[in-house]
């Protein structure tokens, strides 16, 4: 079965609309192709006046902070690297990790398992749906504001650590290599 048959393409952690022309036209012109009830339902996903295919070069590009886990092990470099970590978390909320000890083959295997999960039929993925108000599990954007714009995406959010907080009911059994 073609995982893109429903008009979605899956890749490592996200799914997006495929370039299938009729569906693309519907997304660009919902009032033309959808009943009014569907238009109201989907309008939070339509971002008018944006050109997602072009990079806005008038905005300066800033590099995401990098934290070297290897430097955290050494007493000589630990303090400075911890300062970088604290700064990245307080100012960015994210960072790139280097020298984490995971092999490129392990990371590629993780990507492949994620692709397999997001290529599953929607009904299978929904077995792991998050509960209302919770981040953990399968789902899409949490709606926090009435007029919030939403991304056309789905996610699988799982707690890894501490182990006693893992909720295995959200951990997919398919693909079998996921767990």
TrEMBL record:
Q: Which residues form the Non-haem dioxygenase N-terminal domain?
A: 64-174
Q: Quote the SUPFAM superfamilies the UniProt record gives.
A: Clavaminate synthase-like
State the Gene Ontology terms under molecular function: L-ascorbic acid binding; metal ion binding
One Pfam family this sequence matches: DIOX_N
Transmembrane domains' residue ranges: none
Segments of skewed composition (Polar residues): 15-35
Q: Which UniProt keywords apply?
A: Iron, Metal-binding, Vitamin C
Which superkingdom, per the lineage?
A: Eukaryota
- Region of interest (Disordered), residue spans: 1-35
Q: Which InterPro entries match?
A: DIOX_N, IPNS-like_sf, Plant_2OG-oxidoreductases
Task: Give the PANTHER family listed for this entry.
Answer: OXOGLUTARATE/IRON-DEPENDENT DIOXYGENASE
What is the protein name for this chain? Non-haem dioxygenase N-terminal domain-containing protein
Species the sequence originates in: Jatropha curcas
């Amino acid at each position: 079965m073609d995982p893109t048959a429903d008009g979605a393409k899956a890749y490592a952690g996200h799914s997006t609309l495929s370039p299938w022309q009729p569906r693309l036209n519907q997304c660009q012109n919902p009032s033309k192709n959808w009943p009014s009830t569907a238009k109201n339902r989907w309008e939070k996903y339509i971002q008018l006046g944006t050109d997602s295919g072009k990079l806005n070069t008038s905005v300066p590009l800033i590099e995401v902070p990098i934290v070297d886990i290897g430097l955290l092990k050494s007493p000589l470099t630990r303090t400075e690297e911890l300062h970088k970590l604290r700064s990245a978390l307080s100012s960015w909320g994210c960072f790139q990790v280097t020298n984490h000890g995971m092999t490129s083959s392990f990371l590629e295997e993780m990507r492949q398992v994620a692709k397999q999960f997001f290529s599953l039929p929607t009904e299978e993925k929904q077995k792991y749906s998050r509960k209302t108000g919770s981040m953990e599990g399968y789902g899409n954007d949490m709606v926090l504001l009435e007029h919030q714009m939403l991304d056309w995406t789905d996610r699988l959010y799982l707690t890894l650590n501490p182990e006693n907080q893992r909720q295995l009911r959200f951990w997919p059994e398919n693909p079998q290599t996921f767990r």
